[in-house]
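re: ur question from earlier - yeah i can do the single chain one, its not a big deal. heres the input i used so u can compare w yours
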Amino acid sequence: MNNKKHIYIINKLFINLKKINKNNLNYLFNNDYDRFSKFSFLKNDILIDYSRNFLNLEILKLLIKLSINFNIDKFIKNEINIKNNLIISDKDIYKFFISNDKINIFSKFLSKKKINILLKLKYEYSLYEKKILFLINIYDDNLFFFYIIKFLNKYKKKNLILLKININNIDVILNKYDINLNNSLFFAFIEKDININYILKLNSKFNFNILDNTLFFIKNKSNIINIFLKYKIYNFKYIENIKNNINFYLNIGLLISIYTNLNVFYDLIYGIIYFRNYIYNNLNSNISFILGIIDIWNVFFLNKKNKYIVSNIKNSIFFIKKYNYKIKNNNFIKNNYFNKNLSFDYLLYINNIKDEYISKIFSIIENITFFNNKYIKNTNYFDKSLNIIIIKNINPFNIGILDSIYEFRTKIYFFIKKKIETILNNINNTNILNKVLTKKINSDLITEKQIVEYNSSMNGIINFYKKYRNL
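and the output i got, formated as tokens:
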């Protein structure tokens, strides 16, 4: 077997899914804190056994998409062995992994209810491939540059290079670094016509169109659109009305840090825009329950023994925006979760969630399944031995930053504390988490069924944390 990176789907090879579930953190995620911190998703190969399940196309697509260290360009796509020795060509498998639409090539066997396969994915880790963030029209006294550098240096994103580029130094930089579309991202501040013209001149120096990977920061939108159109730039991405304050710039820095390991920086652009539009503006009014959810996640899932904090939650920021996966209603339930042969460790129920794409995104992350309220009402769904946690009235747009806030919690504690104090008077009637229902938690945390009343006020957070933090 070639030691290069392959995908092998091989018949009659089995892995005990229960055994993986029982110790999934140790099996799927490396527990070496120092080494683990270098990766955002999987440290080693992940082995998923679908031998007793029908291979759901959406699950397979998400499995690939969630592998943020998966480098499709360097992936050797030369061998896929299916039952009956069906072999898919390089070209076909490549189309499958990079396209949301061209997936008919798998329809022959994906429609089968059960397929005996072992899916083994090996990742070409992109961690050590240098990523370059180019800053255009950034001046030494610009807060953006100052705080981004400060943030990234503090959290040691060693694989990210930040460069201020201009006409005078671009030739030297191009000779020094191996620059391509996949490892390059451009941030540009636009205030007037001359800035666009300047960027176009820089663009002519590259062997690809940098506008595809450029995020424009605009202080005032009024005349900018006409300027873009004047230069025949029709497909551009921007954030307007940027704030000249530390919180805004640190949040952008946080997003850069999160997405550093992405194979294609293009996705970072959508992540930042999504973060800005749907999360950042609502952060202050939701910070108290975010802290509470973090504590609950830590207590029930992690037992404070693992640094793994549901790492791929943060990727929901751009997955929601770009892929917009949705559960196929009852088909997903019937064919997957309630299959007698399946075994899940946890079920997390979210009430009052308008769309189900959050559920779909998280359905394969550490075997935690999110259900909408229309499924929870049927008690027959819970005949199996399940661990159920019920969360009511959670805003799905805030889920994407739970991991980030937890990881940097100690650094921003005082900032959060002040934010909570300013909104305490407004949350008296908004207890986000009313009940946490647990059944047969397979750990030493809780050994019997119980209901935990949770108050999202400041005292509620403190009391809950004190009660369960040492379990």
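Residues 299 and 469 are 6 Å apart (CA to CA). not sure if urs matches, ping me
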